[in-house]
Amino acid sequence: MVFMYRLIEANTFRLLTSPVPVPYISRQICSGLLSIRKMNSGKDSASEDSIPGGAGIKLRPSPNCIDWRECRGAVETSSDSLGVGHGSFGKRRSKIDLRSEQRSGDGNSSKFGNKNIPVRVKRSKSGQSCCKPDEGANHVAPFDICLSGSRDSAVLKSLQEMEENQENVEHPIEESGGQGVLRPGMVLLKRYISLGDQIEMVKTCREIGLGPGGFYRPGYKNGAKLRLQMMCLGLNWDPETRKYEDQSPADGCKPPCIPREFNQLVETAIQDAHGLLGKDCTLSNVEDMLPAMSPDICIVNFYTTTGRLGLHQDRDESSETLDKGLPVVSFSVGDSAEFLYGDQRDVNKADKVVLESGDVLIFGGRSRHIFHGVTSVIPNSAPKALIEETRLRPGRLNLTFRQY
Ligand SMILES: O=C(O)CCC(=O)C(=O)O
Ligand SMILES: [Fe+2]
């Protein structure tokens, strides 16, 4: 009943508008201020399942993005559910201890919050929404990255298939080359995120993703769609304009904030990557190879098992960020994926690595402009306990953090 209400309400609140270029914006939404000044209008051809690059604006992100915990419109978890925000996610590690953590008995621990209690979605007591979507447009309910109901046949089927699959399949960690420096400025931390933190990350993304500025399927004006669901935190990235803006094209809402715990984990991961790079005695300053950064943007993608993303460069951040080579930090959770990367937009010339649940990939410095993409998601490869705890749909959650 509550869920029905939620769906009806979501349909009333969300709308789908085609992304419209906003050359000059000075907008105030929910006390957030952002100014965008158009610098140039360089434009490449946009195609389905690729994210073309092209920096074109100068903007100043506001620290006053929506605090999704206080202002999440129709979505609220009960006080006994997520417990997010009270933990110390990401603070716990200063040394790299990767493969062992996820495999060992305590690998599912999380300081992020209470891990055992399922997410419960209900209407906010206040019914408050920071966002007043426009009226009269198409209404689309946000995409739910988790399946509802523990007895959902899709969950049971997925768990069963996963069990069968994982009995036969060799673990791809060895095939994928393990962790380390993949190329100058590009570091892979295998199984870096503990299972407990992965679980909390899924629950948090699910909760934010069901609220204002949540998951939707991005596309272009010509009707082509990316083969993924997306939600942007901090600032919204628009595939049509390839610009960062202060509202989501799906519902007109201001993007929710990046949870503090996510940013802490990013910072710790960069420090640990520096630790790895520091083992190379010829490097006098690891920051020359891989600069540090403070993320103010997080693009959260969810790929179903047929999802993918064409080769592209991430080059829509500010010229300062790009010139300094401030890294993109990517978290993978759920099913594994084949990730391609290389110097050209050519799949035949690209290198391949399998990104598994818990992996952190960092590319900055001389690798900041690499072409990269996801060619396939490997079905039934997610950790079983993650699916059991979160009911994450078959597929892969990916979070990429950037500094504008
Ligand atoms: O899913 C991934 O691993 C990559 C995502 C990505 O490249 C992006 O969002 O720009
Ligand atoms: Fe990218």
TrEMBL record:
List of residues binding Fe cation: H312, D314, H372
Domain Fe2OG dioxygenase: 294-404
One Pfam family per UniProt: 2OG-FeII_Oxy_2
Single GO MF annotation: oxidative RNA demethylase activity
PROSITE patterns tied to this protein: FE2OG_OXY
EC number(s) recorded for this UniProt protein: 1.14.11.51
Keyword Iron among UniProt keywords: yes
Disordered as annotated region, ranges: 78-117
UniProt key word Iron: yes
GO terms (BP aspect): DNA repair; oxidative RNA demethylation
Cofactor binding comment, as recorded: Binds 1 Fe(2+) ion per subunit.
InterPro entries assigned to the protein according to its UniProt record, in alphabetical order: Alkb (IPR004574), AlkB-like (IPR027450), AlkB-like_sf (IPR037151), Oxoglu/Fe-dep_dioxygenase_dom (IPR005123)
A GO CC annotation given for this chain: nucleus
Reactions catalysed according to its record: an N(6)-methyl-2'-deoxyadenosine in DNA + 2-oxoglutarate + O2 = a 2'-deoxyadenosine in DNA + formaldehyde + succinate + CO2
Entry similarity comment: Belongs to the alkB family.
Protein name (database record): DNA N(6)-methyladenine demethylase
Species of provenance: Populus euphratica
Chain's gene name: LOC105110292
